[in-house]
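Re-run with default settings, no changes from the original entry. Doing this only to confirm the output is reproducible before filing.
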Amino acid sequence: MFSRESAHLGTSFEQYFRIVPALTEALKHEAYRVRHSVYCDDLQFELTRYNKFEMDEYDAHALHLLIRSIRSETFIGCTRIIRPSSDVADGLLPFESACAGTLDRSMIDPSKLPRDKIAEVSRLAVVATFRRRKGEEIRPLDITEADYGAGPIPRFPYIPLGLYIGTVELARIHNIQILFMLTEERLAKHFSRLGAQLEFIGAPVEHRGLRFPSMVYVGDIINNMRPIFRPLYQTIATEIRACLAEKTIVTPSIEAEHRIIGF
């Protein structure tokens, strides 16, 4: 089912990529740039911004995560974890508003949960040069069955899984117990490959295509993670903890760029 390379996922991952929490404004800007490249320039889901940052009102109280290519020395993907905040008018997470009429509150009612224990994952994106294959042009992030296969050119999906696992670990560190998201049905199935089922908690809504409101328990993902993914999880968890301990990860090239453009 997996290529020979996947027998050592953690070692293979760290040869090519780094997971980086965006702990500084400079790093958050990198996440906004990736999002603009994907959501504004490529997919045209959002309007083009003059500063090339794709941002919204939720970013101020979100945890941001980046993935960096070691070979190209650039940030190539990102995601964020939105936490509830009194700074937003109604204090709701985005999916709570988008799915207000479709949630099955007999399964779970987000409004009755401790607000500091829940969050929403959104803005998972990978830049075109690391994403674009046949059929992937109109998606911000993709995984297909071929990624796990043993075809002539197997490609284990390190980038999306790195972002997924990094998101889970960042949530765990911040004591977030439940992650919500709006997701396509097929991506939910791939997410379940980690070992924990993503539960649909209501009818789908139209949001750049048909999306299901979904949830997963952070503890279940970690506790039930399949053995093959544990080396990858340990590698990414170690990277995130090291970043949090240092409090700053800006590379010299990024610092120089920001001095030039005045950040």
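The first strand starts at residue 17 and ends at 21. Confidence is low (pLDDT under 50) at residues 1-7, 134-138, 142-155, 248-263.
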